[in-house]
Amino acid sequence: MYSFNNIVNGQALDISDRFDVMNPSTLETAGTAPLASVADLDAAVAAAEAAFPAWAALSDSERQTYCNQVADKIEEHHEELATILTTEQGKPMGGLGSMFEIGGAIAWTRYNASLEVPVEVLQDGEAGRIELHRKPIGVVGSITPWNWPVLIAIWHIIPAIRTGNTLVCKPSPFTPLATLRLIELMNEVLPAGVVNGITGDNDVGAAISAHDNIGKVVFTGSTPTGQKIMGSAADTLKRLTLELGGNDAGIILDDVDPKEIAPALFWGAFINNGQTCAALKRLYVPDSLYDAVCEELRQFASTVKMGDGFAEGMELGPIQNRMQFDKVNRLVRESVASGGQVLCGGPVDDDNTLFFPITLVAAASGDDPLVQEEQFGPALPIIRYSDVEDALRQANDNPNGLGGSVWTNDEARFRDIAGRMECGSVWRNKHGAIQPDAPFGGVKCSGVGVEFGQEGLLANTNIQVVYL
Ligand code: NAD
Question: From CA 146, how far away is CA 441, in angstroms rounded?
Fold first, then answer.
C-alpha cells in the first residue's frame, strides 16, 4: 500500500483525512492520498508565493542546472516511479507503458532545461533601443488528468519553473500517487516552495482556477472542465493553457497498403488503451480499401496482449476507472444500436472488471455516437467513404480539433488534405507522435495555447517591452 503526503514548502503537510486509490487491474486499494481542503491549497499557494522572488531572481543558467538535477532524480528513480504508475494507472510496465512514460518525463525535462529564454532586440538605432524581455508570471496552478499523469505533470511543471515561476500541482484523484512521489523527489533538489503538490477532490481544482494569488493555470483534461476553468479564471484574468479533449480523425487515401499501415494505425488508436488525448478516434477509409483495412486491423488486434500491467509481455492494461469504462461501454452499445457492426471486442456485461476488449466497429454512419463523441478508450469506429472531400468534411464536422492524420504515399495529396484539416497537429502515416521540441495544442474546443518547444516554454511568461 502506497501512502504519500502532500508537499508544501518542501515539507510533508500534515493531513489526516485521506482517500483510497484503486489498482484498476485488481480493483484492490493500491494506496491512499491526502484529501486536502481549500485551506490547505491556500497554504500551498502562500508557500509558492514566498518562494517566488528568490526563484525568479536566479539566472537562467542556475534554473537550467536545477532542471537537470530534477531529470537526474527522475532517472535514479525511473523504475520506482514506473511501478507506482502501473499500480495506480494500470498501464503495463513495458512497451508504450510506464517505463516509457517516465522515460518521456526525463526527456521533456532535459529538453526544457536546454532551452534559452532570450532577450529580443526589436529596435537598435538612432530612434533608440527597444528590448523584449520575458518575465515569469508568478504562481502557476497545474491540474492534471489520469491518463499520462507523470508525463503531463512534467509538461506543466518544468516549463513553468524553468522560466522562473513557482507552482502548485493538483493531480487527478484517480492517479495521485506517482505524482506525489515525483514532487517529493523534486523537493530533494529544488528550493522549498518552488514546486508544491496538493491532492484532493475536484473542489480543490475549482479553487485553483479561481484563486486570487495564482497568475496562470495550466490544465489538461476534459473540455467541460476546461470550460469551467476558463469561466472561473475570468475574475482574475489568469493566463491559461488548456489542453482539452480530442476526437481525432484519420483519413486513409486509396494508395496505401493496408497490411503495411495496420501496426501504425493500431497503435495510433490504441496507445494507452485509447486513453490518450491525441489518439486516433475516428478512422475514415475509402470503399476500395474498406474490407482490407478492417481485416488487417482485426488481425493485428488479435495479436496484442492485454492484462495486468505487471505480467510479462503485456501491451495494454485495463481502463483506468469505472466512469470511463461505463462511457466506452455505453458508446459501443449505442453504436451497435445505431447499426454499427462489431468486428472484434464489443460491449461488456461484467461489472467486476475494468478490462475492456480491443473493439473495432464498422460504423454505419457518421452520426454514430461512437464517432461523434470522444470515447477515450479501446474502441475505434471505422467509417466508409466514397468521396475524399466528404471524408474531410466529416472529419472537420466536430467541435474538437486536437490532432489528425492522412495515410498516403503521395506527399502532394497529404499536403492538400492535411492543410485543410481543422486541428493543431497533423501526421502522415502515423498518429499522435509528439516530441518535446514541437509545439502541441488544440484548436476549436480542444484547447487554448500550446505546450512544448520554445512557444510552450514562453507561454509561462509575460512580455515586458523595455524602451531604452
Ligand atoms: P477531467 O476534466 O475530468 O479532470 C482533469 C482534472 O481536473 C482532474 O485533476 C480533476 O480533479 C480536475 N477537475 C475536475 N473538476 C474541476 C473543476 N471544476 N475545476 C478545476 N479542476 C477540476 O479529465 P480526465 O477525465 O481526468 O481526463 C480525460 C480528458 O483529458 C479527456 O477528455 C482527454 O482527451 C483530455 N486530455 C487532453 C490532453 C491534451 O493534451 N489535449 C491530454 C490528456 C488528456
Answer: 18
CA distance 421 to 273: 25
Least confident of 96-110, 158-172, 261-275, 356-370: 356-370
For the CA atoms of 150, 152, 155, 158, the dihedral, rounded to the nearest 10 degrees, stands at -30
pLDDT over 90 at 365, yes or no: no
243 is known as an active-site residue: yes
CB 112 within 8 A of CB 70: no
Residue 364 has pLDDT above 90, yes or no: no
222 alpha carbon – ligand 1 mean position (Å): 4
Question: Given the DSSP bridges, would you call strands 216-220 and 139-143 parallel, antiparallel or unpaired?
Answer: parallel
CB-based contacts of 9: which residues, under 8 Å, 6+ apart? 43, 47, 50, 51, 192, 193, 196
Q: Is the CB of 277 under 6 A from ligand 1?
A: yes
Per-residue model confidence (pLDDT) at position 14: 86
Q: What mean pLDDT value characterizes the chain?
A: 97
Cell 536566479 belongs to residue: 58
DSSP string, 55-92: HHHS-HHHHHHHHHHHHHHHHHTHHHHHHHHHHHH---
Q: Given CA atoms 114, 80, 460, 280 in this order, what sign does their dihedral have?
A: positive
For cell 505546450, the residue is 451
pLDDT in tens, 42-71: 999 999 999 999 999 999 999 999 999 999
Q: Which of 108, 240, 277, 423 to mutate to test the pocket of ligand 1 (most atoms within 8 A of CB)?
A: 277
- Using pLDDT thresholds of 50, 70 and 90, give the confidence band for residue 146: very high
| Of 19, 11, 1, 39, residue with least CA distance to 200 | 19
The Cα–Cα gap between 102 and 93 comes to: 10
At 184, list the grid cell. 517529493
Is pLDDT of 307 > 90?
Answer: yes
36: number of Cβ within 10 Å: 24
- Catalytic, 277? Answer yes
pLDDT band of residue 366 (cuts 50, 70, 90) is: confident
Between CA 362 and CA 357 the distance in angstroms is 16
Which amino acid is located at 179 in the chain?
Answer: T
Q: Which of 88, 169, 184, 277 is catalytic?
A: 277
Residue 206 makes CB contacts below 8 A (sequence gap 6+) with 228, 232
